[in-house]
Amino acid sequence: MRWLRGPNFDVEGELLRIQKMIQDGEDKRASSKEDFEGNCFVKLWEHWKKFELRSPTGKAIGIIMGLMTFQRFSGVSALIYYTVDIFRNAGTRIAPSTASIIVGAVQVVVSLLSSLLIDRLGRRFLLLTSEITMAFCQLLLVAYFVFKNQGYDMQDYSWIPIFSVCTIVAIFRIGIGPIPWFMMAEIIPLEAKLWSSSLLMCYSWSCLFLVSKVFMDLIDTVGSAATYGLLGLICTLGAVFVYTRVPETKNKSFEAIQAELAMGYTAL
């Protein structure tokens, strides 16, 4: 702690606060565990009956659920799963298998950078940047497939699908991809984490299953241009949601975040 804060910083007070937070957390965790002993479904229902949507906990869960909705329905996971099919349909000069390797390499590099940027630039900035950038790249894909479907020779522009998909994947890994999981730990009270984390993870992976299941069917039914247009619209709505409903948690204590939620936080 002295190395982190500097040799002239009095770390004793901060260490005492950390110890108190750890002890309070252990006490609440033990209390929550006792509450769920016995019939866990009955206990869960009792907790759910006490749950209020307008409480800070309810607002926090609503924010995370909204972020996970736009995270999954942005379609990035489907783009990754069906990379080869997407590039094959786009008719790019680069072999689809090679293009998928490029996308995978971009994921690795950007994932290393994301942890460095989150605390430097803030959650809201990265969320907004990722949603707006993904919407723009989806628009590029729409334009590409519209011209391609009309019979234009797009060989000179075959770089657009690779550029767009790589950019979408990269900015997703920096913003809307990891940040909802960070914020779940930051804004949901400890006593609600036991049941809310399970609920939110179940919801998130259910959305992922749905998107992955219908993505290629949607392309076959309405076409690539309409599919990417829908994804772009979802990303745009995600940016609006972040701007109006998601508070900045960078360098804020849990108490300060809860106070903002209790007062009915809105960015407008």
TrEMBL record:
Membrane disposition: Multi-pass membrane protein
Gene3D superfamilies to which the protein is assigned, alphabetical: MFS general substrate transporter like domains
Stored SUPFAM superfamilies: MFS general substrate transporter (SSF103473)
Residues annotated as transmembrane: 60-82, 94-118, 125-147, 159-182, 194-216, 222-243
Record key words, sorted: Membrane, Transmembrane, Transmembrane helix
Assigned GO CC terms: membrane
Entry-linked InterPro entries: MFS_dom (IPR020846), MFS_sugar_transport-like (IPR005828), MFS_trans_sf (IPR036259), MFS_Trehalose_Transporter (IPR050549), Sugar/inositol_transpt (IPR003663), Sugar_transporter_CS (IPR005829)
Domain Major facilitator superfamily (MFS) profile: 1-250
Subcellular location per the Swiss-Prot or TrEMBL entry: Membrane
Superkingdom classification of source: Eukaryota
Pfam families named in the record: Sugar_tr (PF00083)
Keyword Transmembrane: yes
A GO term, aspect molecular function: transmembrane transporter activity
PANTHER family in alphabetical order: GH07001P-RELATED, PTHR48021
Name of this chain's protein: Facilitated trehalose transporter Tret1-like
Originating organism: Diaphorina citri
